[in-house]
Amino acid sequence: MRHLFSSRFMRISMVFVLALGICNETNAQFGGLLNAAKRKAKEAVTNKATDVVTNKATDVVNNKATDAVNNKANDAANTAVNGNIIPLYYTNGNPMGEWNPETRQYTQIGKVGNEYKRAHVYTFQSNGSVVVGDGRRIGEILPDGTMNTAQTQGIKYNPQTGEVTRNGEWYGKIDDSGMYLFNDKMGWAQAAMDKQIQAFILFNLIATNEMLTEFKQKYDEKVKFNQEMRQQQIANAKADEAASRSGGSAGAVKLWKGGSTVGEIRSNNEVWLRGSNRGKIENNGNIWVGGSVAGQILSNGDIRKGGSIVGKVQGGKVWLGGSIVGEIRQNGDVVKGGSVIGRAEGMKDARKVAVVYFFGFYNL
């Protein structure tokens, strides 16, 4: 993920400043009390027990004063760090920032060297403006819920569904489990907090237009791939049913070229052509020629041959290099150069059929 913060981080966080300031102030206050208590203890003792009483009184006052100072400093620090502050984290566990619902301020946290430090503080004003420490307005939440910054525009959170849209298109969601860009969880808030603010943080402060466009493209490609795989599964199931009705030989895929049968892909994955066993195409994608593995069908449809990716089969389309050279249709037709050159009767897996007809493994 691209760098999220500028290099101008606060050198000392507000928490440590507050804790240190209270600690120094308290030490100064309790310094006078400590001296007075010592003098009073010395005056109150008899001559016979002067040393003992003085030492005991000094120890008591020292302990009480020190405890009071430490307790007050710790309480102040805890209030500053914890209190109503809600930490937010990335999915890898790194801190994202802190939200203060009382002041409606969000503090970004960034990494400087090996340390995480508090950086920019954003205040969400009641009029919808989002401003930084010097009062500059860097974003807005419009009355209709639309959220804009210089980085991203047209972001909108739907409180009824939890969905986040960008210019009307779905881009993710915010729910009790976390903050999502499409289906990828990007982070979460440690406690319940305003989900619209979470949406603004992720989609308007962290993300950029370029980042969202890239994620959208990858998401659309994945959806298309899943749809094509689903269609192929349905086609395979129909082919199995058709082969069963026609009394096909144990589910074998009959391979035709021109008007003649040239072989079959048997149910045990063996490839038989013109009466001889040429190899097999295993369900895990390994392509055997004779007694050795000569290639592989990868999970994304890419075809590997001799250590190199030579093409792919996706959605029935057959690619060689960077061009579509053919198609394996759902009815089993094998199309090359715009013409039907063969047929895979009872086809179960278009990729296996394409390997036989297009990639030169078996010299069909």
Sheet with most strands: strand arrangement: 1-2-3-4-5-6-7-8-9-10-11-12
The fraction of residues in strands falls at 35-45%
Put simply, the count of helices is 5
**So what's the overall shape?**
elongated
What portion of residues is helical?
25-40%
Provide the gyration radius in Å: 35 Å
Task: Write the element-wise H/E pattern from the N-terminal end onward.
Answer: HHEEEEEEEEEEEEHHEEEEEEEEEEEEH
Tally of extended strands?
24
Give start-end ranges of low-pLDDT stretches: 1-54, 64-81
**Structural class, judged by helices and strands?**
alpha+beta
Characterize the biggest β-sheet: 12 strands, antiparallel, barrel
Q: How far apart lie the N and C ends?
A: 48 Å
Calculate the mean pLDDT score and round it: 79
Report on the structure:
- This protein is α+β, with helices and mostly antiparallel strands and 364 residues long.
- It is 33% helix and 35% strand.
- The chain has 5 helices and 24 strands.
- The strands form 2 sheets. Strands 1-2-3-4-5-6-7-8-9-10-11-12 form a 12-stranded antiparallel beta barrel. It has a 12-stranded antiparallel β-barrel with strand order 13-14-15-16-17-18-19-20-21-22-23-24.
- Strand 10 (169-175) and strand 11 form a beta hairpin.
- Helix 1 runs antiparallel to helix 2.
- 25% of the residues are buried.
- The model is unreliable at 1-54 and 64-81 (pLDDT under 50).
